[in-house]
Design a protein that fits this description.
about 45% helix, about 200 residues, alpha/beta, about 15% strand
Length: about 200
């Protein structure tokens, strides 16, 4: 029996989510249609609203409803320190440690030549402009300790050091191959506090 075309479209659309395959997307679609139509309406409305209203902050590149996000506008943050992370989830994890009071820059990805992701795809021009704003004294590289994260940190470190900018890398309190999003706050806090200068 063939499913209705609209249902197939919904199932295929749900597969765009990370970790969601054909079976999971089918279960999700049927759940939303059979048991939670109100939830499906909220999900659709929230997704549309996010697409309509969210853009990138002019300073940190994180998602924001305004040209400059509230974190960048916070006058209590240390403007001399700029922490570079791969994704917004990494920023959230670092904020949860309450051990860092500086500014951020979110790359929205990492260098991955095999996936066709190069320096232009992770907003390095915008990062360079931010790092050279005469306020930043140190750039902390807090990319993941994966091969792509290490390559990204090395590339950025070389790019910034060649321009006379002080660069440090968070300490390896994180496990090799680990991702910041999944690390406990204590380990992450230690890694941040014990960062070292990139040589």
């Amino acid at each position: 029996m063939n499913s209705p075309a609209v249902l197939e479209q919904l199932i295929n659309a749900l597969r765009c989510l990370p970790g969601v395959g054909p079976k999971s997307s089918t279960r999700m679609a049927y759940h939303l249609l059979q048991r939670d139509r109100e939830g499906a309406q909220r999900l659709a409305a929230s997704l549309q609203q996010a697409l309509d209203k969210l853009a990138h902050c002019d300073y940190c590149n994180n998602f924001s409803e305004h040209a400059v996000c509230s974190l960048c506008l916070d006058s209590h943050r240390d403007k001399s320190s700029l922490c570079v992370v791969e994704m917004p989830t990494d920023l959230m994890m670092l904020e949860n440690t309450r051990s860092y009071q500086g500014q951020y820059f979110v790359l929205m990805g990492k260098l991955s030549p095999m996936d066709g992701i190069g320096p232009k795809d992770i907003h390095l021009d915008k990062l360079l402009k931010r790092a050279q704003d005469n306020l930043v004294e140190e750039v902390i590289l807090a990319t993941n300790f994966t091969s792509e994260g290490e390559a990204t940190a090395h590339y950025i470190g070389q790019m910034l050091k060649s321009r006379g900018i002080k660069v440090s890398r968070i300490a390896r309190g994180l496990p090799m191959g680990g991702e910041i999003e999944y690390v406990d706050s204590g380990t992450l806090s230690t890694a941040l506090l014990e960062r070292k200068i990139v040589t």
